[in-house]
Amino acid sequence: MEQQEEKQQENFRVTLKSILGGDILAHNFLRRQANLIILIVILTILYIDNRYESQREIIEIDRLKKELVDTKYDALTISSELTERSRQSRIEEYVATEEGKMPLQTATTPPYLIKEGD
User: Fold this and answer.
1) Continuous H helices in the chain
2) DSSP 98
3) Residue 96: which H helix or E strand, with range?
4) pTM of the model
């Protein structure tokens, strides 16, 4: 009886009917290699998961790089506006337009430094 099963196992051909019918799972080769097949399936699942995770991280890095560039441009714009507004000519112009509210004038003499006696 066992010899007949072994001969059937040796003469077993992989066909679409044997795959769809599940007969291939009863084949002796697959039963011997079940642990290896399970290990390969687990490693394949881990590989796919790792790839998706790395793609997700690359997308996040790209998004953060774009956000950083936008923030740098915003900071540069604000800095240039501050520089423009704090120029002496702009301040003098502002004071001149607000003449009635602010009793300020531009100094006609340059500032001088008071030193302590040695």
Assistant:
1) 2-10, 16-21, 28-32, 34-85, 88-97
2) T
3) helix 88-97
4) 0.52
Cα→Cα distances 25→18, 33, 91, Å: 9, 11, 88
Tens digit of each residue's pLDDT (9 = 90 or more) over 78-108: 999 999 888 888 887 777 777 667 677 777 8
- Cβ-contact 92, 106 below 8 angstroms: yes
Q: What is the pLDDT of residues 4-53, one digit of tens each?
A: 555 555 566 778 887 777 777 777 777 788 899 999 999 999 999 999 99
**d(Cα 52, Cα 41) in Å, to the nearest integer?**
17
Q: Which residues contact 24 (CB under 8 A, 6 or more apart)?
A: 14, 18, 30
